[in-house]
Design goal:
- The structure is a homodimer.
- In chain A, helix 2 crosses helix 3.
- Chain A is built from 13 helices and eleven strands.
- In chain A, helix 11 links the parallel strand 8 and strand 9.
- The first copy, chain A, is an alpha/beta fold and about 350 residues long.
- Helices cover about 45% and strands about 15% of the residues of chain A.
- In chain A, the strands form three sheets. In chain A, strands 2-1-3-4-5 form a five-stranded parallel beta sheet, sandwiched between helices. In chain A, strands 7-6-8-9 form a four-stranded parallel beta sheet.
- The longest helix of chain A has 16 residues.
- The termini of chain A are far apart.
- The interface between A and B is large, with 73 and 76 residues.
- Chain B binds a DNA duplex (16 and 16 nucleotides) through helix 2 and helix 4.
Chain lengths: ~350, ~350
DNA sequence: ATGAAAGCGCTAACAT
DNA sequence: ATGTTAGCGCTTTCAT
């Protein structure tokens, strides 16, 4: 139907919600007084008035109109979260952490889905600016440079008017103007390196990597880190199959790898658990076994990883905490990132080689 | 210092974002004209003016201030979604569906977490009303009556001013005023009943149920439906262990059941996959095997269910679609629910008994 | 077709 | 301590 949206309902017989005016009148005080007791900053109103206002508000079922407050104040109590896919457990955990923090501060979080489409992301970014949110959290992993240009411009605009931007992933491009962007850095390279070392120690010598397209930082860092650590122990990364972050992508990449032939005792490293889980299903679908035959490990430690059999070896990342920190990075002025400990968790999918 | 805004940042050197005024001035037209071309309803402005305004907007990087539009229009372009826990895949899928729809209509979705705490839910509901959202989607499963009173009042208030409320689950309490609430009904009882029948046909005769507290509709419906169908085939539900919707709760309930003793070939029905997954891990932790020894089935078919080994038998619910429908229920005036087909999916966790 | 001006509900100087 | 009164940025009659 038509844009701009005529009100949802009939529009005529809608009893307007009680306004501050209504409350003030009902309580027999001025608008200002009502505002002060209901929303203003603490002590200032005499007990008698205060009580009358409160009673009136209660009686009328008054709720402050957030939009009006926002236009008057110049900023709204919202934190905008950008994720690639909210159904993905990785983002789900992060979102939960952000929501937890926002809630403590009475802020509301809006969430937008980029579907990993850079163009879409830019559109969203622009629209989001219109919300004049307190802050913006970019959790959607992107290829940093591909579209850095226009996104960067959008972000700058964002900060220019006072909004705070925090991004997941690595430090922003080399001083290209994103100076104000705070980043939640997860030690992808370090965790993966340690994982590689541990896998080599377990006896593995040959690995296949499954990652996203080149240029996607998270993927690259994990793949490189793993390769480095694995090499330290004498292992070599034979080949890398690329796709994206979806489970099906992991399954497809693994199927392709299997097609080319995969020797027993080979280790498959999926750049994320979701992808590794997909790979596991492809291995089974091909009639091979996960573990003794083909070993698999991932990264993130989403909850499903502990449920599969054999359970998935991975690197635990405190995602919920990371989300919470992203929130703090927005509201705390002197924020400095607290380290997010990543930890290798060895499970059944990578049995020790005799 | 400037009025109306001690903004989050330094406050002094913040270049205000371009306003409609700025654009109008820059384009040499009136505020009204600028408004019309930038946001107003279609054709009305002469091509020449229209172009100048567009160019000016572009040059200034203008983005409409959503809050201001909302106060002027009387309603904001937001859909508020209430879930118990966004990290739970059940809600994650629903949220994805809602987001998909909202996005198509240029609406933003805000999400709030109830943590399954009724009191918290009421607080949130009240705050949400202040956002004057277009609609409200209640996906957090609640015990319908426990706190129906105050929640109901809140919802009524919500609708009174023109907001649409849609709830997941069953028809609202018996005509208690929730008349306007649209519901997305998922055939929990029917799906569970069919599942029970199928399980009996597989040869199972004795089952243990794991559910939430009595009074929680979703749980009750599934448990009852299953029991009914299972009985049809000659099976009996021996006992029910209660907890909540969390994975750990499922594990605890299962541990308790194991403590009391569980005969081989018993079937465990978890009211949700997440709970069933928790039960599976408890079974393994106790040194028993899932499948041939103790069979397990769940409900929802979240993605992890297909990944575990043995894969979990369950009832597939089109959650993403359900979320999308919830969205449609808010924006479509003559909305009527399209059926959401549930389907039993038998997998390895419930092998046929010889 | 365009512009002037009156709100929308609320906040925050600025008086008193 | 309370009330007055400008705004906030935008939409929308109502004239012209």
């Amino acid at each position: 139907m038509n844009p701009g949206s005529p009100s949802p309902r009939a529009a005529s017989d809608i009893p307007h919600a009680a306004t501050l005016q209504d409350v003030a009148r009902e309580a027999g005080v001025s608008l200002a007084t009502a505002s002060r007791v209901l929303n203003g900053s603490e002590r200032k109103v005499a007990g008698a008035f205060r009580e009358r206002v409160e009673r009136a508000a209660e009686a009328l079922g008054y709720t402050p109109n957030v939009s009006a407050q926002a236009t008057a104040r110049g900023h709204s109590p919202v934190i905008a979260l950008l994720v690639a896919d909210i159904a993905d457990p990785y983002f789900g955990q992060i979102a939960a952490g952000v929501a937890r923090g926002a809630d403590e501060h009475g802020l509301v979080v809006t969430i937008s889905i980029t579907e990993r489409d850079p163009e879409r992301e830019n559109r969203i970014l622009r629209a989001l600016r219109g919300q004049r949110p307190q802050g913006l959290i970019l959790a959607a992993s992107r290829a940093d440079d591909a579209e850095g240009g226009s996104a960067s411009a959008e972000l700058e605009a964002f900060e220019r008017y006072g909004g705070r931007v925090v991004a997941f992933g690595d430090l922003p491009g080399d001083g290209d103007g994103d100076a104000g962007v705070r980043t939640i850095v997860i030690d992808n390279a370090g965790g993966a390196e340690e994982l590689g070392r541990r896998m080599a120690a377990l006896g593995y010598r040959s690995a296949i990597g499954i990652g996203a397209a080149e240029g996607v930082r998270t993927s690259d860092d994990r793949l490189n880190g793993f390769t480095r650590g694995f090499a330290t122990g004498g292992g070599t990364m034979d080949r890398i199959h690329r796709g994206d972050f979806r489970r099906e992508s992991g399954a497809e990449a693994m199927a392709a790898a299997l097609e080319e032939g995969v020797e027993p005792s080979t280790l498959v490293f999926g750049m994320s658990d979701v992808v590794a889980l997909g790979a596991m299903s492809a291995i089974r679908a091909a009639g091979r076994a996960v573990g003794a035959d083909i070993a698999v490990c991932g990264f993130d430690d989403v909850s499903a990883s502990g449920d599969v059999t054999p359970a998935l070896t991975t690197v635990r990342v405190p995602l919920n905490e990371a989300g919470y920190q992203a929130f703090r990075a927005i509201v705390d002025d002197g924020w400095i990132q607290a380290p997010l400990p990543v930890e290798v968790v060895v499970r059944g999918s990578t049995p020790g080689l005799a």
